[in-house]
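Bug #2210: token dump truncated for DUF1194 domain-containing protein?
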Amino acid sequence: MKRTESFMLNALKAASLVLAILCDGRFGALRSSEPFHVDAALILAVDISQSVDKDRYRLQIEGMAQALENKAVADAIISGPYGRIAVQFIVWADGVETTIPWQIISNEQNALTFSGLIRRQTHRAGEYTCMARMMRIVDGGMLDDLPFTATRTILDISGDGIDNCAEPAAIDDARDRLVRRGVTINGLPIIVSGENDVVGAGAYRAPGFGLRPLSHDPGVETTLDHWFKDHVIGGRGAFVQPSQGYEEISRAFQQKFLTEISSVVFEPRRYHELGSH
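Reproduced locally. Full output below:
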């Protein structure tokens, strides 16, 4: 991406966030010199690879929207020291696209509004499951110059397959780079019985990449949730929340949101450094 294009993209993201803040009656207009803090910056990364057809995509985003509309999730969001989080929605397959820039959720109405934005997302068809590439893009441009300060940054990855664009070492490296930046990576593997519950044999690989051992010994198969544990999640408090099929995904998203939002631990020293709100 050219420098001018990158600058314009960052400007648009910042403008979207400022508009969300100004439209939030709780905060009103913020002075330019006033720091803006959130308890968590949550990047929702949704799989749109070839295995995710229109019906599965719709089930995936509907489940996410329903989970955010749950009162317990909204209560968890406002229970933090700052009582608000920032959320961004991206889709990924061969590439990555930000379809909902950073928004602030500070109450139940904000959560309902964001759920509505998610439901309005149209299906985008990808092909390969390039998870390592997605992580590198997040690391390379989505975490710089954020218009807020977050106590925690969480990359929330949902998907129904393993990375089929690169070897496991590539995703391990991409994960470790994010973790070194203080990012927590959580995973929601969508397990479809008889289709992807066991992975590592006959996997669909992008051209130029043959099958590689996915586990500790050559030729050992593994389950999708264990592959997420071995290669995807990382950072403080990281966890895997499996969904048993697309039909159960709303429950899985709800449990995952409750766990990761509630895990934003109050740190007295950091809170003192940032100043009270």
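Output looks complete on our side. Residues 3-30+37-265 form a domain with the Rossmann fold fold (CATH 3.40.50.410). Marking as cannot-reproduce; reopen if the truncation happens again.
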